[in-house]
Amino acid sequence: MSELVFRRADESDAETIRALTHAAYAKWVPVIGRRPKPMNADYEHTVRAHVIDLAYVDGELVGLIEIIPAADHLLLENLAVVPAHQRRGLGRRLIARVEALARAQGKKLVRLYTNKAFTSNLDFYQKLGYALEREEPIKGGGFLVHFAKAV
């Protein structure tokens, strides 16, 4: 598989991040009957407040990770893969990047959450060793499932 090259996003990337996220999450709109949280984010603000790494293969943008550092862990806020590149192992490689960043920063844990209705996400994270921490109701219906993994 081709090498992933990462570049830290900056304010000029907000629209690119928005477009990639919308494309990646569009499949979930019919599942939950509304736009998932990442489709509603203010990426002009988010790119300044969080760490967003853009992932490229052979110069083509294929995905991104959005991370919020905390004192004792990294929170993976968003993992998005361009639809044409989904189901090719990129998600696993992006998660590996998050885990490597956590270790490099001396963090012992990566946390993340997903909508309980996104069953393929639940399976994906559990196969990668993420353990269920808790579930919480979502305003407007449904549940968030919180996962964590020691790294």
Overview of the structural elements:
The protein has 151 residues and is of the alpha+beta class. The protein has a single domain (4-150), classed as Aminopeptidase (3-Layer(aba) Sandwich). Helices cover 31% and strands 34% of the residues. It has 5 helices and 7 strands; from the N terminus they run βαααβββαβαββ. It has helices at 14-25, 29-32, 43-49, 90-104, 119-127, and strands at 4-8, 51-57, 60-69, 74-81, 109-115, 131-137, 143-150. The chain has a 7-stranded mixed beta sheet, sandwiched between helices. Helix 4 (90-104) links the parallel strand 4 (74-81) and strand 5. The longest helix is centred in the middle third of the chain and has 15 residues, at 90-104. The two termini are 24 Å apart. The model has no long low-confidence stretch (mean pLDDT 95).
What topology does this entry show?
Layout: E1 4-8, H1 14-25, H2 29-32, H3 43-49, E2 51-57, E3 60-69, E4 74-81, H4 90-104, E5 109-115, H5 119-127, E6 131-137, E7 143-150
Parallel strand pairs: 4-5
Antiparallel strand pairs: 1-2, 2-3, 3-4, 5-7, 6-7
Helix pairs in contact: 1-3
Care to give the gist of this entry?
The protein is an alpha+beta fold and 151 residues long.
